Amino acid sequence: MTYRMFLDDLREPSNDGKDWLRFKSSSHAIGFMMCHGLPDHISFDHDLGGPDTAMVVVNWLMGYLVDEDRGRPFTYYVHSQNPVGKRNIEAAWDSFDRMYTPFVEYNDGEEG
To answer: What would the 3-class secondary structure string for the chain be?
Structure first.
C-alpha cells in the first residue's frame, strides 16, 4: 500500500493535491503501519497531546528497521512548532541514517 502519513493531533495536512492519511496518536500510527506497511513519506508533529509524542513512532520505526535489517525507506519532514521536539526528531533520524545505513551497505546480505 502506498500512502503518505501526517502525524498531528491538531492540524490537518495541507491541501497540496497529494493524498495524506492523518494520525492523531502514536499508537494509531504504529498500529496502521503494522497492518499496512510503511509509508512513502511521513510529516511529523512532535507533541501529540498529553504525554504522547512522535518520538514514540520514531523509536518504533527505528527498531522495526533494525529488526528488518534495512535503512530508512521513506522521506520525512518535521512540521512541529516545538523547536526542541523538532530538533530531537531530526537528530534521531540523522543519527540513524549515519550509523545504520553504512552497516546495511557493508553487510549486504553476504556471509563471511
So the answer is: CCCEEEECCCCCCCCCCCCCEEECCHHHHHHHHHHHCCCCEEEECCECCCCCEHHHHHHHHHHHHHHCCCCCCCEEEECCCCHHHHHHHHHHHHHHHHHHHHHHHHHCCCCC
Question: What's the angle, vertex CA 91, arms to CA 86 and CA 83, rounded to 5?
Answer: 20
Segment 23-70, tens digit of pLDDT: 999 999 999 999 999 999 999 999 999 999 999 999 999 999 999 888
* Cβ neighbours of 112 (radius 10 Å): 2
Distance CA 76, CA 90 (A): 9
Q: Which CATH architecture has domain 4-107?
A: 3-Layer(aba) Sandwich (3.40)
pTM over 0.85? The answer is: yes
Domain residue ranges in the chain: 4-107
